[in-house]
Design goal:
By secondary structure, the chain is mainly α. The longest helix has 32 residues. The chain starts with a helix and ends with a helix.
Length: 192
Amino acid sequence: MKLNYKRTIFVGFAFFLICSFWQAYDNTIPLILTNKFGMSQAWSGVIMALDNVLALFMLPLFGAISDKHRGKRGRRTPFILLGSGIATLSVPLIAIANNAGSLPLLICAILITLLAICMYRTMTVAIVADITPRPLRTKADSVQKIVGYAGTGVMLVAISVMVPNVERPDYLPLFLLQAAFVLVSAVVYGLL
């Protein structure tokens, strides 16, 4: 029995976009909240904690719904593709809200994006177990993690290149790149 590396790498692209997203999100959102909107570190921390609060409820919920789903595209794929589609549109909206100086729009964009990410975050990990025979799952998980953490590295480089060292930078190019990562990763995964 041999691991299908090509298929595992393609599946890993869904995890790639999750890792790249968190890198961009965690590096920029606190700066946007404090520098652009003048929030205290405490209020910025509250907003940054939203992803963890949502994850407590939404990840198990979407996981349970996915486990019961029966469709032509399988149990996980519809959630990955729908969540990716929503995130492709909502991620750039974060930077647009920042540029417009609209805190309500920013909060809405963050919430929509976090819900979209929750929709497929659990599935990106579960799909490897679904498609890999039990004796090969550890190896497949390692391959998926390598692909995913490559997303972290790519986004770190993108942040250093695309975000100018000014007091209030324009994050739109970075968030458009992130949206492109989401879209391309979803297309690569969808071609599986």
